[in-house]
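note to self: dont lose this again. the chain is below, predicted strucutre after it. 438 aa total, dont forget to put it in the shared folder this time
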Amino acid sequence: MAIPSHWQWMQDTAGGFTKPRSAKLKVVDEAILQYERTKNSNDIWRIRNAFEDWKRSEGPTWDKSLRNRTGAVTRLNVELDKSADYRTYQITHFTMQELMALQFVAKERKKVIATIFEDKEVTFKAAKLKEQLKKSADEVKETAGKGVAYLKSIGKNAPAAAGPSASETVKKKMMEMVKAYFGVEGIEQLGSLAGLILSLLEQAAVSIPPVVGHIKDGYDLFTEWAKVGSGLYKQHNIAERQYTIDTGAPTLAFNALQVCLKDETKNEAISATRATTSFALKTGLAFVDGGAISGPVVGAANALAEFAHNLYLLGMEWRSTKAINKALAAGELDIRLFRTYPLMGCYLLISATLSDMIPIESFGTPGWMDYIENMKKHAFDEIYSSATELVEKSPWEISGLPKRPKGTTGGVFSSISKIFSTVSPLSDLKDLKDLPGA
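---
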């Protein structure tokens, strides 16, 4: 097996007129053409670096790409693993002292998670969700008031609730719903949130019964919403989901970020349920009087559904915050932290230096500085921006967390760079400091 000719490569990876070649794949094409002209071993590394860029752009399933329908991509990967293996090159071209220095760097980089997150606490940025909850509670009061006024204008009174008073029934049902959302046995376990939630439940318990009373089995709405909320929590809560996690902090951070980007944050992933709930209320409610006064009742019920949904979102974020703080307090400053909540990978990305994150396995190979610089420009900068946006949108914040500090592993590179001679493959190590963010 050998590097394919440019013509053969183009034929084997063609996708037709409807599938144009990506910019990253064209770089691989050009590198193969260059090697075909020169047969220079350094140009094999140019192919390798370009090919690795393309694989990253395709993701973990790069071998399932349309370009691999003939197996050409897999064959090239196998050949490059033999003729341009990063570790083999380092072993055969570095002195023992240089290899030990890189081993030291690799060891120090594993401490990045502990350095960044040790003694930190996750703070819940609940202000926005609290305001949404208050607003939806006011909407419940307003729409219920309009409903009651309408009912009075047509001489209708709410059907009496069996047993306890209507307000007591509503409050009890809503309390059970809240406990299901927050995963607690008592409201008092919510700390500072308890007072706010209790006051809003009291408000709803007074205003909503006259309207809910006209819905057949209306008091059971809260029980059903509690079941739905519990199911959604298990489905969407990151702490209860399984991930394939590789070793090494940088890889973990990227995997974590990809999960966050895919979900586009948990709130957005769940927001579609709001429309579904609203639609179900408008079309699926059964009314005590057969629907003669359904209009104003549906408006109030929709507002109540919005209030329940915001309570659920608040409960979900509260539970996740407790989980991540528990992990931090337990000293789980390793891959378990990312299993608990992948957004912490985003925090690592915006807090570590570029030197902490770049792939050390490519160091010293032909064209490695250009490879690193290209990777930073076309991959790291974009990922950093995405991570920053996700952190800013998150309902959490970590007090005292650095953002792109100058130091940490960067200092390790500076301290060992002096051992490399001017003819060493790693003589350019000192130039890493010239890359922004390094």
